[in-house]
Amino acid sequence: MEAKSKVKEINLFPYVEKIGREFDAYKNSLEKELKKLEQLIHKFNPSLEYKEQRKSVENMFKIQGKINNLKLRLEEIKQEIQMAEKTEEEIEKENQQRQNTFNGMTAREWTLHSRNVWNDVSSPRKDYHKEHGAVFPLKLAERLIKMYSREGDLIFDPFSGIGTTIKAALEMNRNGVGIELNPSFYELTKRILLDPKETPIIDSCIFSEENNGFTIQKNNANDLFSLDGIPSNNYIKLFNDDCRNLTNYLEADSVQVLITSPPYADFIRKSIEDREKVHKTSLIKLNNNSTVKPYSDSHLDLGNLPYDEFLEALLPIMEDTYKVIKPGGYAIWVVKDYKDKENFTSYLDFHTDIANLGKKAGFLYHDLIIWDQNEQRSLVLLGYPSKFHTNQNCSFLVVLRKPTTDEMKQIRKKEKRGIEHPNDRHQSNTKSQNIRRGILKHN
Ligand SMILES: C[S@@+](CC[C@H](N)C(=O)[O-])C[C@H]1O[C@@H](n2cnc3c(N)ncnc32)[C@H](O)[C@@H]1O
Predict the structure, then answer these.
(1) Rounded to 10 degrees, what is the CA torsion of 145, 150, 154, 156?
(2) Which residue ranges does the record assign to the DNA methylase N-4/N-6 domain (predicted)?
């Protein structure tokens, strides 16, 4: 029997026209920047023109980033077209795949989401973002939720900020729990979530508040259906508390994925001091447009702790998150490495410390995703003229995974036979570790 096509005709014209217009605009801006650069090089005068040249090169990087986004958009359009051309059999096969995967993705979607360098997750910046100063984009939370959970799963953010993670959870038919210490960020999250312009879905939800938290629950009576056709009554909750109390709010083995960006010890305070003292007249201050500021003066705020104390405080939190995450569930920590002036190193590798803390708490190190932020940040002159180091205009998404029950059993069995836990393997004097250190010579 011949397979039937679901949709016979699709009008590609608006897509093609829009993409064409955007390409033309970027091509023109690139050409303009190139011309400017050529002129500058022609009458090169290092002291006068350096700033302009740099701006021009940066503009080109930004345009390049936008072109990359367009490429991804084209890929999405290609997918939409393929979707529209699918036969009933193909649709059936995909539905099967969606049911078989833990995150409801088809094999094709799975592959398309497996890039590990992202430069297409920026979301529009609103004024209220400045009230906080260090939020991650909604698109970033949405992508992680799509990759690591399915509808109805529970998502958790222990350092909720202005609630980006739980907002994405609500909008994507997941449940969400957030904890935020600072009462003004708790109130700001409430304002954002209750504003239909910011959170249109709120019109079909019920809001309730008690003691130190609130709940927003989808209203079943409005017949709100998820994509699967199952009535969706998911909820989100936010608590105004210290996340060291997280086990008061979450049951053991209940969370499918944790998505968070912790305070970066007292790095924010240090960078502000640094900018004020050292870079009073430098380009770093002029061009980095930073909006970050300390979160609070509270002694419970992890953003007020020196780095070592901060790591010490984070370990029991990691251990508690391990308890509440389901076997096989994920924990994703979004962090940036810190420019470390005091210890003769270029960067303090915060992301490695997070991975190691996670391993100490029992998680398996699972993946590393680079969030490329070149588009939003200017380049500054570092180490000149004696030590070259790069502008780390990126954040790291450290992906940890709690072993499944079966993996835990196997790990225990192996440990009984004297085989190390996977997390200890790199810490002791194993052969591979020694080779890496250059202690053993290859035969
Ligand atoms: C990097 S921000 C998170 C921003 C968040 N990802 C967003 O997009 O809105 C870190 C947050 O942790 C909060 N925080 C600091 N110490 C805390 C603690 N002990 N318990 C809970 N939250 C805390 C800070 O107030 C700050 O809002």
Answers:
(1) -10
(2) 64-190
Same domain, residue pair 186 and 328: yes
Q: Does residue 370 form part of some domain?
A: yes
How many folded domains does the chain comprise?
A: 2
Task: From 425, 353, 426, 363, select the one nearest 396 (Cα to Cα).
Answer: 353
Give the residue, out of 123, 181, 239, with the most ligand 1 atoms within 8 A of its beta carbon, to mutate for a pocket test. Answer: 181
Q: What pLDDT digit, counting tens, does each position of 318-377 carry?
A: 999 999 999 999 999 999 998 877 777 778 899 999 999 999 999 999 999 999 998 777
- What distance in Å separates the CA atoms of residue 207 and residue 196, rounded to the nearest whole number? 13
CA of 262 to the centre of ligand 1 (A): 6
**Can you tell me the distance from the alpha carbon of 122 to that of 374, in angstroms, rounded to the nearest whole number?**
11
Dist. CA 186 → ligand 1 center (Å): 10
For residue 217, the model assigns a pLDDT of: 95
Domain assignment present for 198: yes
Residue 43 confidence (pLDDT):
63
Say which range, 50-54, 80-84, 194-198, 401-405, has the weakest mean pLDDT. 50-54
Residue with CA at minimum distance from ligand 1 atom 5: 161
**147 with 215, same domain?**
yes
**Which CATH number goes with the domain that contains 264?**
3.40.50.150
Average pLDDT over residues 129-154: 94
Q: Which of 131, 164, 295, 299 to mutate to test the pocket of ligand 1 (most atoms within 8 A of CB)?
A: 295
Give residue ranges with CB within 6 A of ligand 1: 132, 134-136, 159, 161-162, 164, 179-182, 185, 242-243, 261, 263, 295-296, 300-303
- Confirm whether pTM is higher than 0.85: no
The DSSP symbol for 3 reads: P
Return the ligand 1 atom nearest residue 313 CA. Answer: 19
Alpha-carbon distance of 335 to 14, in angstroms, equals 39
- Structural domain includes residue 81: yes
Residues with Cβ within 8 Å of residue 293, at least 6 apart in sequence: 133, 268, 272
Q: Do 347 and 391 share a domain, yes or no?
A: yes
